[in-house]
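Now for today's protein:

——
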Amino acid sequence: MRLRTHLQRCATIKQPIRVVARAGQTSLNASSGMKPASKDLQPPKDLPTLSSLEWSKPLQIVRYPDPRLRAVNAKITKFDSSLLELAKEMIQAMYLDDGVGLAAPQVGINARLMVFNPHGKEKPGNESILVNPEIVSISKSTAVETEGCLSFPDRCSNDVSRTLIYADVERPRDIIVKAQDEKGEPVQLQLGGLSDLGAFISRIFQHEYDHLQGILFHDRMKANVLDSVRTSLQALEEEFLVANPGVKIQRIPAMKVKKGF
């Protein structure tokens, strides 16, 4: 994920992630204004498991509409040096494209792993690695922000500084998450809050978590917003099909035509 103004918005605020429970502690209490995660945010039933990770250097960002971005992502069960090395390589791939978040399917690995750093490469050492994450609950209140995704280069922009497709996406402001760290230790996090950085980290997590669910950011766009980037998305679809003839892809929905006046 990339957000145009993240460096300015995140420069001076500290302690954005609140760890509210670890292994052996009681589960999270329901917070005021929260509700259970919706069905699309729940991991698929009968989720496959992955006992070993197969990957090679250098990692390459997978571009829309590559089918791997829509595939089921397996639960990781082995926490070893290979997992940590993969996470480190993902962080470097993320920084190479000036990103602040990256999910494993975005580098062609269908596993439930994400990395992020809200400060980006400007402040290394602030990276988070989350394995097998799950959203437990979401806030009833939502917010709209402009997002970009490393898997969605913009082929139609006349602005040379605009390398990605950007569009507004509505998401819950706050979330409660459970996951494992790179060592397999359980953690529970409360993301969001009143600070700009807290809200930004909540959004990064949700964007990357969607990738683990096979959901892409244009799936979350309202119809009028989707229409505003339709040409750019279709250009990526045609580019992929030319390079990969015969491969079946999931195209964006057709534009809805209003009838009457």
